[in-house]
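User: Structure with aspartic acid, tokens only please.
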Amino acid sequence: MKVLKFGGTSVGSPERMKNLVELIKSDEPKIVVLSAMSGTTNALVEIATALYARENDKAKKLIDALEKKYEEVLKGLFLSPPYKGGRGGFEKGKELVKNHFQFIRSFTLDMFTANEEKAILAQGELLSTALEHFYLEEIGIDSVLLPALNFMRIDENDEPDLKYIEENLKAELKKYAGKKLFITQGYICRNSFGEIDNLKRGGSDYTATLIGAALTSEEIQIWTDIDGMHNNDPRIVDKTFPVTELSFDEAAELAYFGAKILHPTCVLPAQKRKVPVRLLNTMQPQAKGTVIADKASADRITAVAAKDGIIAIKIKSARMLLAYGFLRSVFEIFERYKTPIDMITTSEVAVSVTIDNDKNLDAIVKELNEFCSVEVDKEQTIVCIVGSFTADKQGYASRIFDSLKNISLRMISYGGSENNVSVLIDSKHKKDALVALNKGLFGL
Ligand code: ASP
Ligand code: MG
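Assistant:
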């Protein structure tokens, strides 16, 4: 069984929903995971925000506008009635859209809580999958609409419960012996109370890798509009190329450091069960894309990625000199404010760390100030060079720093893993740094 995930733009219009059929209609058994049509989840967030603020008139207008959009989709997607015998996709779609919007509208009448917000956010994927299913039915392709809410689940720490998913997904599939094509919703799940929940924005990739892992499937395909993972950021440097093969470790580093094409945590379930993940382009289905697999690549520099919006915090104290327990008291503060630290460098009397979210920055600095002096630099960028630098046989470090010789470096992190060298720079030097690395490391 293969798992194929298509994002919001791949189902973003009636045209795209129809074109999708070419990519999923083969006889190979497969589970197709779909996102909401592009724009829908954002619109649902807006609706929920208005409901929270008790701006019910505004919410109603937003709901009407979104419903109109779906009515247009129906016209573009299905044959117009009347049909010879029976109901066609248009009628079924019309009823579906009506029901879902009635449900969303029902929240304008009553109290609005976080649970209800999650129920609203789930509507996009429920709509896109049912519409694609009706379309397949109308053109005579047999498929099963598999309700993700029957098997996708997160535990009390909001972590996916792979064991539960595996058991329940297998039980669900058992009901349809002989069927080959399954359509299911990305992103949505139930939580440990059984309520509707989600895997956070962009979570459809995660659904796909969780399903692939649960079934130890042959391959997980993530279809987007880009031809795989590139060696550098194509929005910033002129020449880039798709990387054909990545190890799971390299991919995990790249996903966090801004390579927008994969949800950061979603590599983990696939890695755990060694299921290869292939990144493919719907606009160029024949292109090879990038495959992420359990294979250690040879010594090499694979790609460069950058993450903006980083805050560097320098924490200095004479108490650090020859003392133990100092770092623990620093890290405890970040832990208490649930703020992850990304990069760390130390000297004998100071430590610098980076965070990517300033929500609790003031409170953290205040507590640190009780026993250290603290300096904060905002608008920093982490540039991360990913590859396999085992034993550093070929002088990779010197090639990297030689390429960056004209850029001032605020922090350097080397040796944290064999797959990553990171440097922290002022964001205004990001372009220069990426261009210099493209030239120095890839000759581009
Ligand atoms: N529809 C959800 C979102 O827009 C999930 C996804 O597209 O992956 O975040
Ligand atoms: Mg997406």
